[in-house]
Amino acid sequence: MNAGRLRLLGVAALAGALGLAASHWYGGSPLPRTQAGQRALQAVAGMTAPVPPDGVEPARPGDPLPTVRLPGLDGNLVDLAGIAPGRPLLVNVWASWCGPCVEEMPELQRYAHAQGDAGVQVVGLALDTPDGVHGFLQRVPVAYPILLDTPGPADASVWLGNTRGLLPYSVLVDARRRVVKQKLGPFAPGEIEGWARLP
Questions:
Q1: What is the Cα 72 distance to its own chain's centre?
Q2: Residue range(s) occupied by CATH 3.40.30.10 in the chain
Q3: Is the pTM of this model over 0.85?
Q4: CA–CA separation, 44 and 27 (whole Å)
């Protein structure tokens, strides 16, 4: 086989992998949600990660929580760091048009309910239109706070470390408002408890 044909096969394989990744993350394809499968999809997604704009420093584990002030569902500005003082936060970035985001919301609601008033506080950060979020929450209600942002190269998700621009994306923040963990991709049933356990 000549070099040109090998190069063409390599490009086709990469395009297929990118298509599978996009289908999985955005369309909810039936690919298995094994950890190895998710790591492979994340590696493919990382090949096309956009570079954050100048002045945007995506958070990494150990960094302080970036300043994020966004409107809540009522339109009033909310300081993310000021939600549930003294409690850890699990910030879940989602959108109503994101299939895997929608699939994991009942799991996030179940976890949030189990935490009560003293455990980890779940916060949703919707990269969506207010109408899209309100319409979705009428069909799939959740009891935890939801903040709204407009998707873009410097949205709150990027500041929280989502440099790949894929959803869903979750961040665990400790009670001192330091980033502890970051996760790209949906939670499998029963996964949140172990992932959100603080060291």
A1: 18
A2: 54-195
A3: no
A4: 16
